[in-house]
Amino acid sequence: MQPFRILPLILLLGAALPVQAEVYKCTDAEGRITYTNDRNAARGCKALDTDQTISTVPAPARRPSAGPATSPAGTPSSFPRVSPDDQRARDDSRRQVLEAELATEESALTAAEQALAEQESVRMGDERNYQKVLDRLQPFKDKVELHKRNIEALRREISGLR
């Protein structure tokens, strides 16, 4: 009985042996150094000693390239500018469009709620099972919820305007 208890312990200890892979140091034609443990990618590279400890160091921060000049917000200087008056006019026209959509959506919500109320008051002869009533009313409830979500989204967008 005792050997059967020891055998799993021996197998577990055998599986927990440390795993080690060879690490190669590669230097390319431009002098950049890379490290890899892939034998196929390490052709012409030098194997590191296995008794050395390996530590990682973060790469240095990249310097900005000498590309086109940019403003502090990251927008290129050649990007077209909009005058404040033009932007205000655009915002006002956007607000008017959103408010018109909101009014349309509110009237559609009212109509959908009325249609739902009408359908709730009607009882069909073949709807003795209450689930059939719920199934018949579900599209009307879905339409009401859709209009409520649209109104909420439009109000949120209008409140986000400058």
TrEMBL record:
Kindly indicate where the leader peptide sits in this chain.
Answer: 1-21
Q: In the UniProt record, does the keyword Coiled coil occur?
A: yes
Compositionally biased, Basic and acidic residues: which spans? 83-94
Domain DUF4124 spans what residues?
11-63
Q: Which residues form a coiled coil?
A: 95-157
Write out the ranges of the annotated region (Disordered).
Answer: 53-94
Q: Does the keyword Secreted apply?
A: no
- Give the Low complexity compositional bias ranges: 58-78
| Source species | Thauera propionica
Q: Which Pfam families match?
A: DUF4124 (PF13511)
Which InterPro entries does the record associate with it?
Answer: DUF4124 (IPR025392)
Which key words are in the record?
Coiled coil, Signal
What name does UniProt use for this protein? Answer: DUF4124 domain-containing protein
